[in-house]
């Protein structure tokens, strides 16, 4: 029986999010295989995905309201979790190690005869943030120390694999396997949400830098005004002072709005009631919101860049990055053509069949079988 050791990193970093969801599904799937054993069995974490999958320890503590010393107690348990992983590493009581993020703390504890498998999600820091800051971020430094030393690398898209080889040309291509992610199906019944615009286009997630949100708002501004359509933003925080200033300068605050979302059911409702979902980002590792749009029968418009054609296939409309007229034309096509919307929805439903967690787990097992 092969023992696969996972660590605490991403579950300390994320209470909710794509990477922690991926590792939760991976641990659940591998744990069901009779030839494999997942270590540890449970984590202490506030992570929603772990909690929903009964993979958390001290779950009653998470449910308790604040009390004096609760924060110190939680930090002490988290530290104990880290020390537990280090103890397993030092004693070699495992067969394969898969860190859940990039902190290389484990290198000095990992026995020389024990392999580690590293998942690389994207090279966004290397392509964008490091150039802006003119210095390597901690994440980039961590990856630079791990990628050459990993016994095998899992890239979540062919685009990510290509980027890894560009930034690390000395890495053997045969050492990289592409394993696509998936998305969990939301409820098929959209719950009613108060205050939704009558007609809106949906934007989901963080809006900074390479996400290209400011360009999107500026490009669609006049079209939204003339068509009485709202650009609705969800899945991140409210507009900050800079964003409000930008939107105010182009007189867009009346039709570019933010809406808070509580849970998956509300997010599902936003997708299901939207005219379409637009993902204008210039760089992604995979783009799970694309699949979320497909699940919720929402027509999808993507920038023709990065991993998007790989994920969206023929189930989305694409615009050329930087081409404002092209984007407005694609939006207009979806808004005014019911038959096109229905065609994209049907293709999206079909496209989902190739992205599922069962396949993700099976492809990981093929990697583990190498060792």
UniProtKB/TrEMBL annotation:
<dbReference type="InterPro" id="IPR028098">
    <property type="entry name" value="Glyco_trans_4-like_N"/>
</dbReference>
<dbReference type="Pfam" id="PF00534">
    <property type="entry name" value="Glycos_transf_1"/>
</dbReference>
<keyword id="KW-0808">Transferase</keyword>
<feature type="domain" description="Glycosyl transferase family 1">
    <location>
        <begin position="198"/>
        <end position="350"/>
    </location>
</feature>
<dbReference type="GO" id="GO:0016757">
    <property type="term" value="F:glycosyltransferase activity"/>
</dbReference>
<protein>
    <submittedName>
        <fullName>Glycosyltransferase family 1 protein</fullName>
    </submittedName>
</protein>
<dbReference type="Pfam" id="PF13439">
    <property type="entry name" value="Glyco_transf_4"/>
</dbReference>
<feature type="domain" description="Glycosyltransferase subfamily 4-like N-terminal">
    <location>
        <begin position="79"/>
        <end position="180"/>
    </location>
</feature>
<dbReference type="InterPro" id="IPR001296">
    <property type="entry name" value="Glyco_trans_1"/>
</dbReference>
């Amino acid at each position: 029986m092969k023992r696969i050791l996972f660590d605490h990193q991403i579950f300390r970093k994320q209470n909710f999010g794509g990477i922690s969801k991926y590792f939760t599904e991976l641990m659940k799937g591998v744990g069901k295989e009779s030839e494999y054993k997942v270590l540890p069995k449970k984590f202490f974490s506030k992570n929603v995905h772990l909690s929903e999958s009964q993979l958390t320890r001290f779950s009653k503590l998470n449910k308790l309201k604040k009390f004096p010393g609760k924060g110190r107690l939680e930090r002490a348990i988290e530290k104990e979790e880290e020390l537990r992983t280090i103890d397993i590493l030092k004693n070699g009581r495992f067969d394969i190690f898969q860190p859940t993020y990039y902190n290389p703390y484990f290198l000095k504890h990992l026995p020389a005869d024990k392999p580690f498998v590293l998942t690389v999600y994207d090279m966004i820091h290397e392509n964008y943030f490091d150039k802006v800051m003119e210095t390597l971020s901690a994440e980039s430094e961590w990856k630079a120390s791990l990628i050459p030393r990993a016994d095998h690398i899992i890239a979540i898209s062919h685009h990510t694999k290509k980027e890894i080889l560009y930034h690390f040309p000395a890495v053997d291509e045969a050492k990289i396997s592409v394993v696509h992610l998936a998305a969990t199906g939301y409820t098929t019944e959209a719950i009613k949400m108060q205050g939704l615009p009558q007609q809106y286009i949906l934007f989901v997630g963080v809006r900074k830098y390479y996400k290209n949100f400011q360009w999107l708002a500026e490009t669609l501004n006049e079209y939204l005004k003339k068509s009485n359509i709202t650009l609705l933003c969800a899945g991140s925080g409210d507009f900050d002072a800079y964003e409000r200033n930008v939107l105010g300068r182009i007189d867009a605050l009346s039709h570019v709005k933010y809406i808070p979302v509580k849970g998956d059911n509300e997010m599902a409702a936003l997708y299901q009631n939207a005219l379409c979902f637009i993902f204008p980002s210039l760089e992604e590792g995979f783009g799970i919101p694309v699949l979320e749009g497909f699940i919720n029968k929402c027509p999808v418009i993507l920038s023709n860049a990065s991993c998007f054609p790989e994920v969206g296939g023929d189930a989305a409309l694409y615009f050329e990055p930087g081409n404002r007229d092209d984007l407005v034309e694609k939006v207009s096509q979806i808004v005014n053509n019911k038959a096109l919307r229905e065609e994209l929805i049907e293709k999206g439903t079909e496209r989902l069949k190739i992205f599922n967690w069962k396949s993700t787990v099976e492809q990981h097992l093929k990697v583990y079988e190498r060792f």
